[in-house]
Amino acid sequence: MGVGKSTVGQLLAERLGVGYRDTDEDIVTAEGRAIADIFVAEGEPVFRAIEKRAVRTALAEHEGVLALGGGAILDAETRGLLAGRQVVYLSMDVEEAVKRTGLNAARPLLAINPRKQWRELMEARRHLYEEVATAVVATDDRTPEEVTQAALDALELKEA
Prior knowledge:
single chain; mainly alpha; globular
């Protein structure tokens, strides 16, 4: 959350000359409501099922840069679908997250004690991000352009 996946994803797509797609945006469009509203009204399990379908569809339809929501990798089937693909895990520490988001934005999983919850989420998820990642790129104290270049270098991709 707040790592810059949308910004960096768009920059990567632009520099590679391919399309960009974000599964969170797909979900909002398909559901006609914000992700936070889905969490509140339906609960996390319903959202995760919607997210799983959105990721599966996007992976089947889209050949460019695809940004996934931070919890997408919680699903083992989704992790399996990512196997063999180039996946960049954009990492940051909690202090950087505070600087970027204030940890007070509309983040349904961070509603109470955001710093503690962010740390717990990362402890639970980090190994899953690393499991699917082809490359890990730290975003702390870097501009989106620097992160984009680091991702290109890590994946050994050339610009279009």
